[in-house]
């Protein structure tokens, strides 16, 4: 078995960068989203300061219940935690000795704390994915404890076990993301037409999405088939005994993630998924190995030759079976015009039967694979470590981390049963009890991205307009990143996540009753609240706030390159059509608006929070003033690029 010391270090470095992206992106948006005058003030949901340890862990624990002891308000507490996350992750990103178990536990605790009060703007699958992946990263990272100077532990025998947990998380994420597209019974996924809508209906498309949207339908259908193959059967190859198959599965997953990065601004999500894919690699593939020469059966000439041939046969059989299954289940056919025909060649009932069998198989496969990793780690602890003390230390460490891995694997099975309710009976009650006790820490979650395709009849967008008279003229509010002006090119904003722009996409899929935060946004615009207005690209009323605001639903479509199409344009990126009223004309004194604001305590909130005049408070205010007028995406890019340059110098200079 190839060593994974370098693989582990690459994963830890990558995760440091993910945390850096996440904290930097969130920090720059706090005043407008969670400040005292923001859209969803965090002070309205944060708990009172903890009186003791027991009080701290009651309900939903967060470090924000401790920041009042530092003389900080809730907003300042969030800024303190997120900026602290930036500093810690930045140091870990540029310096290998800093990437320790304690450091990653601190990053996890910081992100978990702000997540607890994040409300709607932090309720995304990549946020809970980062919490789960972050906790596993802390288990994988070295302790790095030595008096007077840092000590970097290059390799631990139990690293194979903890890195396996990352691979298991990747499997659950990808497999679930694939099957939910079919279990949702969405007609576009079953008809293989989802990508004919996806590029223009996703939250924040990139310029590349416009070009891919122009591709012919047969290619879009084949792309959906490729997505199914990458997300459903290939993840089972993560646990294949043949190394070449694991590498094949790695590049398949990375290809999918890179294509998503090129066509959609999904913040740090795809980078985080690629980080999880690193668990499929080993030091030999990266280009470095702690152990040289042949190992295991390969060290014996005759047995080595036999095992190499067996691996070749298994590899070819797996790839051949995958190709045959793809052709059979999706009726791939090369037509006379050299296009590729495809259609789903199985029924919903047959797929339901597949799920009833595949989920239990996945559970057993995971259990056997984990048990094998633990046994191998115990064996290496005895045979490869030199000296009695080192053997005892390695063995005890492997036992401890194996128990932790077994517990994490057990509670993760509960989230896997969401895909097949019949498999719930396979788990003993103690597993559900353990999951229930740890659920509030989000150590494991269920996933399933893009389960239904929205915007089939046109991409819905909420357009806000303001005026000083009910008769008009009305002036439109433009956002930084979401579609508005049809002549504006789609942006490139990842790994930053403009969370207001994202929620505007969800708001367009529902009503104001489903999105009470939207009414809060309207009120902040009626008062020209500086922190909230800064989240928008333009303010059509820079000197005095508007007296009235209204919102209408529009349907957006990408323009076409076909001159015969009604959507053809040489200058515009979008075509839009006005639909229904989303929010009637409201003023700041509107009775229903006032009732809403009082109900959600946006106004008349008698907060007892008081900011101190300590040095820490002054530093936080200085940093906020320093970053107040910086473009949000540029801030994130600058932090990341600075870290990359310093990491390069730390590695090579």
From TrEMBL:
Q: What is this protein called?
A: Lipase maturation factor
Give the matching Pfam families. Answer: LMF1, LMF1_C
Q: What is the similarity comment for this entry?
A: Belongs to the lipase maturation factor family.
What InterPro entries is this protein classified in?
LMF, LMF1/2_C, LMF1/2_N
Which cellular compartments is it found in?
Endoplasmic reticulum membrane
Organism domain of life: Eukaryota
Q: What does this protein do?
A: Involved in the maturation of specific proteins in the endoplasmic reticulum.
Where does the record place the Lipase maturation factor 1/2 C-terminal domain?
Answer: 443-584
């Amino acid at each position: 078995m190839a060593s994974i010391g370098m693989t582990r270090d690459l994963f830890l470095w990558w995760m440091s960068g993910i945390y850096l992206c996440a904290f930097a992106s969130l920090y720059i948006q706090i005043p407008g989203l969670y400040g005292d005058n923001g859209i969803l003030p965090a002070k309205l949901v944060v708990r009172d300061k903890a009186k003791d340890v027991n009080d701290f862990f009651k309900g939903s624990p967060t470090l924000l219940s401790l920041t009042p002891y530092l003389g900080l308000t809730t907003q300042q507490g969030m800024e303190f935690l997120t900026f602290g996350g930036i500093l810690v992750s930045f140091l870990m990103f540029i310096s290998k000795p800093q990437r320790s178990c304690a450091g990653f536990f601190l990053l996890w605790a910081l992100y978990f704390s702000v997540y607890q009060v994040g409300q709607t703007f932090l309720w995304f699958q990549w946020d809970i994915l980062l919490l789960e992946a972050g906790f596993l990263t802390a288990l994988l990272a070295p302790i790095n404890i030595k008096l007077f100077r840092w000590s970097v532990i290059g390799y631990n025998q139990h690293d194979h076990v903890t890195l396996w947990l990352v691979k298991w998380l990747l499997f659950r994420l990808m497999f679930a993301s694939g099957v939910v597209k079919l279990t949702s019974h969405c007609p576009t996924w079953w008809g293989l037409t989802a990508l004919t809508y996806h590029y223009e209906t996703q939250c924040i498309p990139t310029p590349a999405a416009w070009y891919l949207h122009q591709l012919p339908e047969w290619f879009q259908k084949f792309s959906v088939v490729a997505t199914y193959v990458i997300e459903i059967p290939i993840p089972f190859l993560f646990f294949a005994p043949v190394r070449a198959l694991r590498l094949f599965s790695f590049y398949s997953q990375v290809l999918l993630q890179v294509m998503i990065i090129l066509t959609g601004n999904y913040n740090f999500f795809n980078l985080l998924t690629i980080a999880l894919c690193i668990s499929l690699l080993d030091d030999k593939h990266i280009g470095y190995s702690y152990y040289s020469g042949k190992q295991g059966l390969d060290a014996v000439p005759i047995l080595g030759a036999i095992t190499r041939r067996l691996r070749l046969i298994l590899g070819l059989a797996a790839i051949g079976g995958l190709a045959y299954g793809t052709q059979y289940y999706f009726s791939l056919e090369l037509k006379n015009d050299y296009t590729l025909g495809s259609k789903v060649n199985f029924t919903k009932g047959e797929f339901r039967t597949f799920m009833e069998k595949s989920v239990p198989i996945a559970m057993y496969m995971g259990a056997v694979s984990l048990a094998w990793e633990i046994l191998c780690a115990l064996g290496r602890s005895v045979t490869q470590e030199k000296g009695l003390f080192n053997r005892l230390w390695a063995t005890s460490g492997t036992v401890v981390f194996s128990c932790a891995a077994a517990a994490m694997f057990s509670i993760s099975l509960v989230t896997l049963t969401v895909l097949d309710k019949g498999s719930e009976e396979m788990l003993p009650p103690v597993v559900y009890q353990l999951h229930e006790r740890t659920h509030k820490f989000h150590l494991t979650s269920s996933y399933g991205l893009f389960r239904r395709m929205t915007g089939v009849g046109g991409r819905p967008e909420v357009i806000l307009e303001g005026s000083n008279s009910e008769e008009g003229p009305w002036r439109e509010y433009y956002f930084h990143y979401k579609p508005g002006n049809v002549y504006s090119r789609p942006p490139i904003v990842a790994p930053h996540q403009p969370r207001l722009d994202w929620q505007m996409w969800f708001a367009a899929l529902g009503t104001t009753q489903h999105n009470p935060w939207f009414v809060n946004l309207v009120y902040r615009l009626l008062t020209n609240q500086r922190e909230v207005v800064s989240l928008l690209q333009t303010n059509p009323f820079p000197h005095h706030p508007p007296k009235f605001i209204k919102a209408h639903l529009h349907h957006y479509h990408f323009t076409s390159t076909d001159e015969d199409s009604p959507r053809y344009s040489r200058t515009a990126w979008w075509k839009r059509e006005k639909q229904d009223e989303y929010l009637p004309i409201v003023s700041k004194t509107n009775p229903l608006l006032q009732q809403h604001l009082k109900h959600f305590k946006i106004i008349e909130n008698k907060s007892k929070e008081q900011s101190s005049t300590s040095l820490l408070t002054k530093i936080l205010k200085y940093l906020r003033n320093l970053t107040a007028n910086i473009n949000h995406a540029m801030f994130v890019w600058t932090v990341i690029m600075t870290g990359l340059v310093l990491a390069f110098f730390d590695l090579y200079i």
